[in-house]
Amino acid sequence: MVILGAGESGTGAAILAKKEGFDVFVSDSSAIKPNYKAMLDSHGIRWEEGQHTEEAILNADEVVKSPGIPDKAPIIRKLKAQGTPIISEIEFAGRYTDAKMICITGSNGKTTTTLLTHHILTEAGIDAGLAGNVGNSLALQVAESPHPVYVIELSSFQLDNMYQFKADIAILLNITPDHLDRYNYEMQNYVDAKFRILQNQTAHDAFIFWNDDPIIAREIQKRNPAATLYPFAETHEAGTKGYVENNQITVETTNGIFSMEEELLALTGKHNLYNSLAATIAAKIMDLKDEKIRAALRSFSGVEHRLEKVARVRGVDYINDSKATNVNSCWYALQSMRTPVVLILGGTDKGNDYSEIEDLVKEKVHSLIFLGVDNAKLHRFFDGKVPEIEDARSMEEAVTKAYRMAHKGDTVLLSPCCASFDLFKCYEDRGDQFKAYVRNL
């Protein structure tokens, strides 16, 4: 067994493979973090960093690939050419557990919904692991600290290399253009990846989805899923199992009807209403007590870097939405704004179409700051559409300019629409820098 990539998922997969009796070799073309080296060493697992030794890798019976490695990487092309099976860490871990799997994907909102679902389960006394894009590696938990239930956030990259794995409860929040650079700029390839969350489901399983997403609606017509369907929407439509009526959120399952005043939800905004409905349907399918669900929906504290309130400085609110790495995520952020906005955009473009936010920008934004190495595409689209536009080459410069451009009663919103890798290590680094410079104002 060869593991490509020695981050959280790769290291966990290696430890599980070792436990299950495989001859394991881990290879990472970049430097391996010291904590992961220590974990591999403590389990007697061979590893290399800064290179891929082809002789060893191409000799594998099977390869577990980090979701961050694209299919166009030379070593992946060579493995595929010789027919070596390539799977994800989630696929591998699923072979060695009979736990109930609650799996969540979508272009936006999946982290919030995953953490909220996990919060509801644990507050109700369920021993649930948190895995995928959040929490610890699923493989590591299966190997060393197994749980009867897992709540798993799945990216399209993870789903790409999943084949036999099955979700008992699958949640698909929405599908909007994202990561198209990884899918040959073909939207259908990305859609197909998201719908892999339904593979292997039967009528005994549940599929929870946003009823008003046109792409999801079209694909359901094409695919006719085997699972029991649980659509949710903002309004009570025919067949919906989660909705809002008379300022109450209502969820209907075979385990009964749940209701709660919308204003009591800890999370605010339309996008979070959808997240709350999806998580609540999952909780009711798990047959949790209503009072436990209500208490958890009231006590959840939200997700860092997702519409996170940082500070109010001289009457201006500063909001960190660094996790908005695509255009639709920024749309939700702007849609929730109630004051004039100074918007910070930019980073590594993933094939973005900014027309989705054009009307909201014209309506709510009086100043734009483009934070990136190459802002040419942003200028081509937005120049002339808002009164003031500035460029920034660092977060310090962006925050300084935002401070100057904002007026009392405004909101400065970091909601970049783009990946962070041109100027930052990751979206967390970008958000942390924003918060640090704001707090220094």
Short account of what is shown:
Helices cover 36% and strands 21% of the residues.
User: What name goes with the CATH superfamily of the largest domain?
Assistant: Mur-like, catalytic domain
- Using only C-alpha atoms, the radius of gyration works out to 22 Å
Largest sheet: 6 strands, parallel
CATH classification class of the largest domain? Alpha Beta
Query: Could you list the spans in which at least 5 consecutive residues all have pLDDT below 50?
Result: none
Instruction: Kindly report the spatial arrangement of strands forming the biggest sheet.
Output: 7-8-6-9-10-11
How would you portray this structure in words?
Helix 6 packs across helix 11. A hairpin with a 2-residue loop joins strand 15 and strand 16 (316-320). The chain has 17 helices and 20 strands. It has three domains: 2-87, Rossmann fold; 94-299, 3-Layer(aba) Sandwich (UDP-N-acetylmuramoyl-L-alanine:D-glutamate ligase), CATH 3.40.1190; 308-439, Mur ligase, C-terminal domain (Protein-Tyrosine Phosphatase, Chain A, Alpha-Beta Complex), CATH 3.90.190.20. It is α/β, with parallel strands linked by helices. The strands form four sheets. Strands 7-8-6-9-10-11 form a six-stranded parallel β-sheet, with helices on one face. 36% of the residues lie in helices and 21% in strands. The mean pLDDT is 94. The chain is globular and about 65 Å long.
Features:
alpha/beta, 20 strands, 36% helix, UDP-N-acetylmuramoyl-L-alanine:D-glutamate ligase, Rossmann fold, 17 helices, 3 domains, globular, 6-stranded parallel β-sheet, 6-stranded mixed β-sheet, Protein-Tyrosine Phosphatase, Chain A, 441 residues
